Amino acid sequence: MILLTGGAGYIALHTAAVLIETGHDVVLFDNFCNSKPLAVERLAAIVGRPVPCVQGDVRSRTDLDGLFDQYSIDAVIHFAGLKAVGESAAEPLRYYDNNVGGSLVLLEAMQQAEVRRIVFSSSACVYGEPDASPIPESAALRPANVYGRTKLMVEEILRDLQLAAPGWSVALLRYFNPVGAHPSGLIGEDPNGVPNNLMPFVTQVAVGRRPQLQVFGGDYPTPDGSGVRDYIHVMDLADGHRAALDWALRDPREVLTANLGTGQGYSVLDLVRSFEQASGRAIPYRIVARRAGDVAAYWGDPLLARQRLGWTARRTLEDMCRDSWNWQSRNPQGFA
Ligand code: NAD
Ligand code: WQD
Questions:
Q1: Could you tell me what percent of the chain has a pLDDT over 90?
Q2: Is any atom of ligand 2 closer than 6 Å to the C-beta of 227?
Q3: Whose CA is nearest to atom 6 of ligand 1?
Q4: Ligand 1 lining (C-beta closer than 6 Å)
Q5: Average pLDDT over all residues of the chain
Q6: Contact at 8 Å (CB) between 193 and 200?
Q7: What distance in angstroms lies between residue 75's CA and the mean position of ligand 2's atoms?
Q8: Which of 114, 275, 279, 291 is spaced 20 to 30 Å from 318 by Cα?
Q9: Which residue among 83, 93, 103, 198 has the greatest number of ligand 1 atoms within 8 angstroms of its CB, and so is best to mutate?
Q10: pLDDT band at residue 78 using 50, 70 and 90 as cut-offs
């Protein structure tokens, strides 16, 4: 049985769908601070059977001990965390408590339950402003915000733990920019309030919830002046977790750090154009000032994941836009 903390969230739901379809049993664990129980019902509709989901908090040892008593867990994929960069600057203690404190409590509970295989949701954010793209895993780690520092701290805790207790197998997955949705249109990204990220903002404009997109910066040193990122389809990301989990289940007893990206950069305006084509909807936009803290362009080097995990992203920007639109157009108000 595989435990997915933060199991009702965007990336975990898609990962659960892929894991169940490839023969794994999963249990989800979530405090629903950024997700809804309805999402778990939608997952059940996709896989054609109920998916066990326990409500609880990774910061609660009581909740976790109960979970490890109830289920025989072989490995954990640790998605639970807060992820809004701007909010992390305003509420650092909440972010350190939830992301770092929560991970510590989880690791202690795992150690007690003798579960020593973990796949951790890290982020390309740990690189901060890179010297060059594509970014290899060996690049300097200098996160530029609190959120990124919480991810780097947990990576370091896991490296220290594996050194002290070599029985552990640890995969640190650094995601680039996840977008897209399950092809069924039953699950997808459903942020609370005004979306911070580009794709959910675009889909909400397309569905009429917001009048226009603001493009943050038109004067970057990029081909069209807008920011460039490595967007990755969430189903490819889910498959990357499947590959990392299969690796951990072979008990390699080491730490593997891998980028999960496509290795290809697209600009904000590339994404807008591709989305317009995929959806048949016009996306009105206005170019405004750069967003504080944004980097002009970066994308990941995906070679290591290919060599070590046998995994490569396969889906195109067109696939990402089509599936994001399929989800949002079928669910204009998300899971509400
Ligand atoms: P999400 O908010 O949809 O999912 C996170 C889930 O964790 C939510 O369901 C939330 O309710 C739950 N959660 C948060 N704190 C918890 C706690 N203390 N106890 C139990 N559950 C808790 O976010 P997501 O996009 O699916 O991200 C999943 C993970 O991947 C996060 O750790 C995030 O930092 C990381 N990540 C996300 C991105 C991205 O752009 N989406 C990129 C890189 C890394
Ligand atoms: C993408 C591009 C914006 C919104 C963040 C985190 C990162 C990871 C993914 C968690 C940029 C532009 C955006 C809008 C815009 N998350 N943009 N108008 O900032 O690359 O990465 O999410 O780990 O750690 O930092 O993603 O989607 O916010 O922005 O023009 O309304 O879209 O300036 O160029 P970002 P994003």
A1: 99
A2: yes
A3: 6
A4: 6, 8-12, 30-35, 57-59, 79-83, 98, 102, 121, 123, 175, 178
A5: 98
A6: no
A7: 31
A8: 291
A9: 83
A10: very high
Substitution site in 15, 18, 27, 33 for ligand 1 pocket (most atoms within 8 Å of beta carbon): 33
pLDDT band at 92 (very low <50, low <70, confident <90, very high): very high
C-alpha span between 252 and 265 (Å, rounded): 32
Contact 146, 89 (CB under 8 A): yes
Please give the backbone phi and psi of residue 226, each rounded to the nearest 5 degrees, phi first.
-95, 165
Dump pLDDT digits (tens) for 123-159.
Answer: 999 999 999 999 999 999 999 999 999 999 999 999 9
Q: What's the CA-to-centroid distance between 197 and ligand 2, angstroms?
A: 5
Q: How far is ligand 2, taken at its centre, from the CA of residue 123, in Å?
A: 12
Neighbouring C-beta atoms of residue 241, cutoff 10 Å? 28
Identify the residue whose C-alpha is closest to ligand 2 atom 17: 198
User: Which residue CA neighbors atom 13 of ligand 1 most closely?
Assistant: 80
Direct distance between the N- and C-terminal alpha carbons of the chain, in angstroms, rounded to an integer: 30
pLDDT at 251: 98
Q: Which atom of ligand 2 is nearest to the CA of 216?
A: 30
Q: Which fold has domain 2-330?
A: Rossmann fold (3.40.50)
> What is the reported pLDDT for 102?
98
Q: How many whole angstroms from 283 Cα to the centroid of ligand 1?
A: 28
The per-residue pLDDT for 65 is 98
Residue-wise pLDDT tens digits, 238-281: 999 999 999 999 999 999 999 999 999 999 999 999 999 999 99
Cα 97 to Cα 92: distance, rounded to the nearest angstrom: 8
Tell me the C-alpha distance between 52 and 62, whole Å.
Answer: 19
pLDDT band at 8 (very low <50, low <70, confident <90, very high): very high
For the chain, which residues make up each domain, given as ranges?
Answer: 2-330
Residue at token pair 């990220």 = 197
112 token code pair: 């007690």
